[in-house]
From TrEMBL:
Keywords: DNA-binding. This is Helix-turn-helix domain-containing protein. PROSITE patterns: HTH_CROC1. CDD domains: cupin_XRE_C, HTH_XRE. It comes from the Bacteria. InterPro entries: Cro/C1-type_HTH (IPR001387), Cupin_2 (IPR013096), Lambda_DNA-bd_dom_sf (IPR010982), RmlC-like_jellyroll (IPR014710), RmlC_Cupin_sf (IPR011051), TransReg_Diox_bact_type (IPR050807). GO terms for cellular component: cytosol. GO terms for molecular function: DNA binding; DNA-binding transcription factor activity. Gene3D superfamilies: Jelly Rolls, lambda repressor-like DNA-binding domains. Residues 16-70 form the HTH cro/C1-type domain. The keyword Membrane does not apply.
Amino acid sequence: MGDSEGSVRGVLAANLKRVRAERGLSLSELSRRAGIGKATLSQLESGTGNPTLETVFGLARVLGVPISDLVDGAPTGGVTVVRAADVEALSGAGVDLRPLRRIESGDSVFEIYDQQVRPGGTQDSAGHSGTEHTVVQAGRLGVRVNGCDVELGPGDYVGFDATLPHAYTALGGEVVRSVLLLHFRAEQRLHVADPHDG
């Protein structure tokens, strides 16, 4: 997809500027809070940066918004079909995450992702807002949540408080295909965290 307004880069650029302005944060202040270089943030806001999974999750955490507030375009009505080949992946150290759908219901936001965990790497997260749900479709997935390890196979499910430190690892040398559902309640979206505040 290139750098068009419909690409992940283009959508992130527009949404990041909007959310940062709504929060009343300067580029410098967001850079400080998120631990991301000001030049990198400037590139992301101009649509020329290369957003990683870690960067997008980190920005969402600091801004106090669901990930889809940053990477989703305008919602559409009627029947929604999302082709995997048409969705750019956000890639991290061990995971490729394709945002498929954002659903708003009452005071909740649900985000649905196609998640592929690559062998040979681990995707670590220090934690972010929301509740995380994963259903494995193919392969064997190692999940660590706050020091507790579980192993999942096809059809298995795990759910946990996403504010806890967690990690995903593909076991057995093959890609793990899974569906990731993130659930955010209204109260989880309101707090803007500043790790430097005492």
